[in-house]
TrEMBL record:
<dbReference type="InterPro" id="IPR013022">
    <property type="entry name" value="Xyl_isomerase-like_TIM-brl"/>
</dbReference>
<dbReference type="InterPro" id="IPR036237">
    <property type="entry name" value="Xyl_isomerase-like_sf"/>
</dbReference>
<keyword id="KW-0472">Membrane</keyword>
<keyword id="KW-0812">Transmembrane</keyword>
<dbReference type="Pfam" id="PF01261">
    <property type="entry name" value="AP_endonuc_2"/>
</dbReference>
<protein>
    <submittedName>
        <fullName>Sugar phosphate isomerase/epimerase family protein</fullName>
    </submittedName>
</protein>
<keyword id="KW-1133">Transmembrane helix</keyword>
<dbReference type="InterPro" id="IPR050417">
    <property type="entry name" value="Sugar_Epim/Isomerase"/>
</dbReference>
<feature type="transmembrane region" description="Helical">
    <location>
        <begin position="7"/>
        <end position="25"/>
    </location>
</feature>
<feature type="domain" description="Xylose isomerase-like TIM barrel">
    <location>
        <begin position="47"/>
        <end position="268"/>
    </location>
</feature>
<keyword id="KW-0413">Isomerase</keyword>
<dbReference type="GO" id="GO:0016853">
    <property type="term" value="F:isomerase activity"/>
</dbReference>
Length: 295
């Protein structure tokens, strides 16, 4: 189903959502939706139905920002209609966090500032994607890279715990990085770190691009503290191309996931696409979470 200018499609999806929700018990709890749209689109996100948004570390929390700039950001966060729940783009591409060129002291000092500021700002989640920062040389020992990375992440988790922030390791795809390109491999790192402030972000968009089965969500289980989604072909918002996310949502439902699902995609026509995406994804979530779980 594609977005239509007439608005009939949006109305139809919204109607389905209302009908489906009517069959759900008042006690039914299902994932809350957010969107990575930034403070610049806070009002539109709120009007579209979202109550939570994602921003980026460079814009909001980076050590490159002066205290004055950061304090100005705090005022913007406080005035926002939506809750700024997460920030992505944790590490810049020139600050290596995996491979032979990691300057651990520099990485930890940088993370200390970012996570301290996240705590002050009330940002609960920092997404660790950072494709450039975590890419490794083609001929580098993968076993060593994973062991060293897990060791670094344990130290990052300790800092995050100090500021009551959760770092979310994100599975990426092979077009973006050559290190940790599946939910399965990301889950292995999270298990090794074994810290409550270092959890897993199940990125459904990247899973679809890599052809990864929804069963990997079930295998990861309680490691998952967050999920992100966009349509497979162009990373468009849900509803633009009409992608069916229900197999992955069904896996989340099976593990009793009741956390957050954030849309992180390319937005071409925000006033049209954002409200439609909220309606479209809400309908799929409601439909799946109203189903009876099967073994």
């Amino acid at each position: 189903m594609r977005i239509k200018k007439s608005g009939y499609t949006a109305f139809f999806i919204c109607l389905i959502y209302i009908i489906v929700c009517g069959f759900i018990s008042d006690k039914q709890v299902y994932p809350r939706l957010g969107i990575v749209s930034g403070l610049a689109q806070d009002s539109l996100a709120y009007a579209s139905g979202f109550k939570m948004i994602g921003e980026s570390v460079p814009k909001l929390l980076s050590p490159a920002l002066t205290d004055e700039q950061f304090n100005a950001n705090l005022k913007k966060i406080k005035a926002a209609k939506c809750k700024v729940l997460s920030c992505n783009l944790f590490f810049p591409s020139n600050m290596k966090i995996a491979g032979p060129d990691v300057d651990e002291a520099k990485v930890l000092a940088y993370a200390e500032t970012v996570l301290s500021r996240a705590g002050q700002a009330g940002v609960k989640f920092i997404v660790l994607g950072s494709s450039g920062a975590r890419s490794i040389p083609v001929d580098y020992d993968m076993v060593k890279a994973k062991a060293d990375f897990a060791g670094l992440c344990k130290k990052l988790a300790q800092i995050a715990g100090k500021y009551k922030v959760i770092i979310l390791l994100e599975n990426l795809e092979t077009t973006e990085t050559n290190f940790i390109t599946s939910l399965k491999s990301a889950a292995e790192i999270v298990r090794e770190v074994n810290h409550p402030n270092f959890r897993l972000n199940a990125d459904i968009f990247h899973m679809m691009r890599e052809g990864e089965s929804p069963n990997e969500i079930i295998e990861a289980g309680a490691l998952i503290a967050f999920s992100e989604v966009a349509e497979k072909q162009n990373r468009s918002l849900p509803g633009v191309m009409g992608d069916d996310f229900k197999p992955y949502l069904r896996a989340l439902h099976k593990i009793n996931y009741k956390g957050f699902i954030f849309i992180e995609g390319n937005i071409k026509n925000a006033p049209t696409e954002m409200p439609f995406a909220f309606q479209y994804l809400s309908a799929q979530v409601a439909a799946v979470y109203s189903e009876k779980k099967t073994d």
